[in-house]
Amino acid sequence: MARDQIFERAKSPTDFTFGKETATVFDDMVSRSVPFYGEMQRMIGEMAADFAVEGTNLYDLGCATGTTLLALDPVVHPEVRFIGVDNSAEMLAKAREKLDEVGFKRPHDLIEADLEHGLDVVNASVVVMNLTLQFIRPLHRGKVIRDVAGGLGGQGCLLLVEKLTMADSLFNRLFIKYYYDLKRRNGYSDTEISRKREALENVLIPYRRDENVALLRSAGFKHVEVFFRWYNFCGMVAVK
Fold first, then answer.
1. In percent, how much of the chain has pLDDT > 70?
2. Which of 52, 86, 95, 225 lies at a CB distance of 3.0 to 4.6 Å from 66, suitable for a disulfide?
3. pTM for this predicted structure
4. What are the phi and psi torsion angles at 216 (to 5°)?
């Protein structure tokens, strides 16, 4: 696994992208940047296994390098088709490489598509959006969630993990500080942290928890619950 040194090498911050450079180091990046990333993947698999229905589709929207698809494969019914969607050709190429390496046998599709331009979600029992919605411009988020809800069958679920902002400035400041402390513990320098923060400023736009709940409710999800929380990171399960 190549080590993430993108912002150690950067001379000046530019907007963060999911191109070839990021795809090459993405697995290391998320393992060092996302708290309890492995546990979140395990929890997503646990719930997906309970909600996935034989003969339906499971979508991973923003599938990146395929880590979640690989984690789900051993625990989800084998007659569930996996569909990974990402807007980065480089990320999908890495995902195909990883699936090929392990001899991935499950029926699946990897689709290059921009969620902001719409996507037909069909015959789905589970949809995963793991740190994806925050990269979709707020103008389009309502439609994306409505499209997901419209493609889910009865009792279908959306597993949504997001970085949050806080309404209270005190907690917002503290939680960001704790998050940067985690990144330092995982080997990122202050320079790297600062440069990445600037690069993400216009790309990753977090909502408050209540704003995400409101999106889910307005799209028709009847049951919404938090299944994971670490300071400014939150996982929610929403069921129709």
1. 98
2. 95
3. 0.96
4. -65, -45
